[in-house]
Amino acid sequence: MVARGLAEGNGSTEDAGATGEPTFAIAFGGGGARGLAHINVIEAMDELGIRPVAIAGSSIGAIMGAGMAAGMSGRDIHEYAVATLSRRAEIVARLWRLRPASFGEMFGGGIRLGQFNIERVLRNFLPDRIPDTFEELRIPLSVTATDFYGQREVPIANGDLFSAIGASAAIPALFRPVRRDDRILIDGGIYNPVPFDHLKHKAQFVIAIDVVGGPEGDIGRFPSSIDAMFGASQLMMQSIIATRLRTDPPAIFLRPSVARFGVLDFLRVEQVLRDSAGIKDELKRAVDAAITYAERREPE
To answer: Least packed by Cβ within 10 Å: which of 9, 156, 266, 282?
Structure first.
């Protein structure tokens, strides 16, 4: 196992590599509540003594990546997530603080889906340890959003952090798009569900975690309209991931066991964490295998 920690702070790949230890970067994929499984991955990295030199994230992966980049341990994130999401009363109280300030704000333009302000949601639910800007993070972070009118992926790695992760997590029909730098931005998973390509050449080993999942259920039952919408999105994102894996795969690519959970199953945080706990051992074995393989290929 990798038992030694990597260089502290914002060190570059070259700085970490100069110590003679392997360097790692990690990409956390999007998938709504299924992305709570990323917490097990972060805990496993802590247990291995791995401090990534760079992090990338999409949607819920951008949120988890921000927590890790801010210096939170897997245990910190685990305890905060369970305390915040497993109690319905706590969620209701936080959502109440997000209510419209006036009837004009509530009904202006009519009642429409997708009008939750994701930036306000994040500020009410995320821990205080997550700073306001990328520049205050302890580990370099890149998040991906989708430029709605520009029809392209937008990587963001500087400036205001909450607008960036808000844009990355702005799932259509649930959250209002985010305006940033004169662009209208939505969910980063639409163009890049697991942004491991953002980490190319930044570390010796790139780890990618896919929590997109796919539609599950009885083949004899028609899905509801909501299930069909989210399921179609999953199928689209899996097609994108498969294409990217064929062209330039990361050193380690893992899928936690979370397919049976829905994108909004945040109240089932403890079940998600239990069901995906096996990813810890999977990651540890994969890290050992990747390092062993690399060492065998080195010239004598």
So the answer is: 9
- Measured CA to CA in angstroms, residue 179 lies from 73, 131, 145, 176, 256 at distances of 31, 20, 11, 9, 33
Q: Can you give the pLDDT at residue 102? A: 41
Provide the whole-model pTM. Answer: 0.86
The number of beta carbons lying within 10 Å of the beta carbon of residue 227 is 15
Q: From residue 122, give the alpha-carbon distance in Å to each of 95, 130, 209, 245.
A: 11, 10, 22, 31
Q: Using only C-alpha atoms, what is the Rg of the chain?
A: 19
What is the per-residue pLDDT across 175-204, written as a single tens digit (0 to 9) for each?
A: 899 999 999 999 999 999 999 999 999 999
Residue 92 domain-assigned (yes or no): yes
Q: What is the dihedral of CA 185, 190, 195, 198, to 10 degrees?
A: -50
Name the helix (H) or strand (E) containing 247: helix 225-247
User: Measured between alpha carbons, how far is 209 from 207 in angstroms, rounded to an integer?
Assistant: 7
Query: Per residue in 74-113, pLDDT tens?
Result: 999 999 999 998 877 777 676 666 655 443 443 344 334 4
In a domain, 160, yes or no: yes
Q: How many domains does the chain have?
A: 1
90 Cβ partners below 8 Å, 6+ apart? 83, 84
147 a catalytic residue: no
Angstrom distance (rounded) from CA 226 to CA 45 = 35
Where are any strands of DSSP class E within 73-214?
Answer: 141-147, 152-156, 178-180, 183-186, 205-209
Q: Reply yes or no on whether the pLDDT at 10 is more than 90.
A: no
DSSP helix/strand/coil, 102 = coil
Residues 252 and 205: beta-carbon distance below 8 Å: yes
Is 158 among the domain residues? yes
Q: Which of 58, 163, 187, 233 is catalytic?
A: 187
Output the domain CATH number for residue 238.
Answer: 3.40.1090.10
Question: Does 59 participate in catalysis according to the annotation?
Answer: yes
